[in-house]
Amino acid sequence: WKDYQTVFTNAKAGMDGVDKARVQQVVWEMSKDSAHFKNEQRKQASVLERIERMKQRSAALTTMEITAAGRAMDARIAGCEARRDLTRTWLHVDMDCFYAAVHEREQPELKRLPVAVGGMGMISTANYVARRFGVRSAMPGFIGKRLCPKLVFVKPDFAKYTEAAAVVRGAFKQLDPDFESGGLDEAYLDVTGYCTRTATSGEEAATELRRLVKEVSGGLTCSVGVACNKMLAKICSDINKPDGQYVLPASRAAVMSFLDTLPVRKIPCIGKVTEQVLQGVLGVSTCGQLLAPASRCRLPLLFSEAAAGFFLEAALGLAPTRHGPKTDTSVDPGRKGLSHERTFRNMSAPAEQEAMAKQLVEALVADMAEEGIEGRNITLKLKLSTFEVHTRAATMPRHVRTVSDILPAVLRLLRAEMPVTLRLMGVRM
Questions:
Q1: CA 332/CA 423 separation, integer angstroms
Q2: Do strands 152-154 and 115-118 pair parallel, antiparallel, or not at all (unpaired)?
Q3: How far apart are the first and last CA of the chain?
Q4: What average pLDDT score do residues 259-271 get?
Q5: For strand 152-154 and strand 389-400, is the pairing parallel, antiparallel, or unpaired?
Q6: How confident is the model over 157-205, as pLDDT tens digits?
Q7: How many Å apart are CA 184 and CA 377, to the nearest integer?
Q8: Run of H or E residues at 227
């Protein structure tokens, strides 16, 4: 069990003092005979094989290849540095334990108790009291209950979360009318203009935003990161949770110092597998190590051009500094798109599955309205009880943005897969 790693054993904010060894042992003991465990074993074996193949490729590289790649990466770094933009001020706001906090606002007595939103099948989020026991989002409720016998489950109420998110977004608009939503509980704000108009700093803007959110929402709190671009602001928002903020000074020296010892796993879009591959193949665990000459010269030789470029820019702390255009994703493939997904205990009843699809479409439509976009391509994601993942897509005859237009298409895709037992569903436009 000491070698068993899964998403459930990764620490989130509020879990710094957790007995990680105990959590790891409990998760292993309660998962070892499950379909999830077997699926994790298959995936881990595949990752190890991939690492071994890449290590063999790395060992076979010639001095000439490495030298040439090193020169190319040095030139690429020079180009990246030439377009580094330190003039903007970005906030990333992350609502603290949002789903749980909405229930605690209505039932203040829950604040003193370990609370998880969800049930024995799956936990959507856990409050900070529960996190001290190792309970976290995406964890099966029965494991959470073993870790914390007094854990209190609260049934999810997505209508309430959507309503609370709409109120909070009103506060975001006061600082940046064009803010970008990252879901119901997070957003990116370019407050450069706000700071200029009000003669305030990024730190003062973050303080004001936190005050506004608490005021308009009836006490909900958020954590805010302040930096010169979206990626760095997101990383910073996780540092002083809950109800706190962190400011990364807008200078190259400050950014590079911050990143030097930052674990690569902290970079958005770098997950467990990529972290393991970088460590296993290159011995890299921090952004500073990723930039070291011995590592960076191998990136374009072992990874795709896109992946190598992403790693390089991330390690340099470079990311978008302007809002992207609000365009239709079906005609702008470069846009990431909007999506919502939820994990739950095994669900087989068609009526329950269709009700879940309706909730997801309603949440998606709310985000589309907030972003001011329409679309034609809708994708349905299904994870089965066997952990197989199926994706199905449909193209609308015209651009759409309403539940009445999108839901029928999603239901047709879903019904075509029935009968099926699901543990996750998602929709994407």
A1: 31
A2: parallel
A3: 40
A4: 94
A5: unpaired
A6: 988 998 999 999 999 999 999 999 888 899 999 999 999 999 999 999 9
A7: 22
A8: strand 222-227
